[in-house]
Amino acid sequence: MNHIKYTVTEDVLATKGVRFANLIIDYIIRVILIFIVGILIGIISELTGSYALYDIIIESDSRIVDYVFAYMILLVYYTTVETLTGRSIGKYITKTKVVLFDGSKPTFNEVLVRTLCRMIPLEGLSFLGDIGKGWHDTMSKTYVVDIEKFEAKKQTIEGLSEIGRIGE
Q1: Labelling 76: which of 33, 34, 40, 55 has CA 20 to 30 A away?
Q2: Which helix (H) or strand (E) is 85 found in, with range?
Q3: What mean pLDDT comes out for the span 59-74?
């Protein structure tokens, strides 16, 4: 029995333009989530009569608190959706997904590394290289692929492997 060896190649990677669209869409989603969580904190504070969390997060004039709150949303958003589905909302819209070198779905640890790397200052500029892989891709050893191209290439490789087995 032959085991099909598949590896992600440059021709199935998502383009820089698609990656930029993912960035913008997911940023908008994160802003919406921050707004929703802020409203929930306000509602819970009103219902319980305890305003400690409200005062710390919503009424704070501290930039550090704002960044910590935004990064917590980023961490929860990406680790949850990319661990469960391999795709963020931006990736659903652009029909892309995160995979490992062999085409398999990344584990929680790989997604966590990927997400933590997104917190590196100026990480968004790391896409300016030739291939358009960001630091969060490189450090987590993950790839963002165009699903249509990825699946077509995978089916081609599997089909060729089947042809080779006909005489066995």
Answers
A1: 55
A2: helix 63-85
A3: 92
Q: For residue 68, what are the domain limits? A: 10-165
Q: Do the domain assignments include residue 99?
A: yes
| Alpha-carbon 143 to chain mean position | 10
Helix (H) / strand (E) containing 144: strand 143-146
Task: Look at the chain and report how many structural domains it folds into.
Answer: 1
Residue 4 located in a structural domain? no
Question: What does pLDDT average to over the chain?
Answer: 89
Closest residue by Cα to residue 12 from 159, 137, 151: 151
Contact call for residues 82 and 26 (beta carbons, < 8 A): no
Residue 105 lies in a domain: yes
> Cα dist. 29→26, 74, 132 in Å?
5, 10, 22
Residue 145 lies in a domain: yes
Helix (H) or strand (E) run with residue 116 in it: helix 108-117
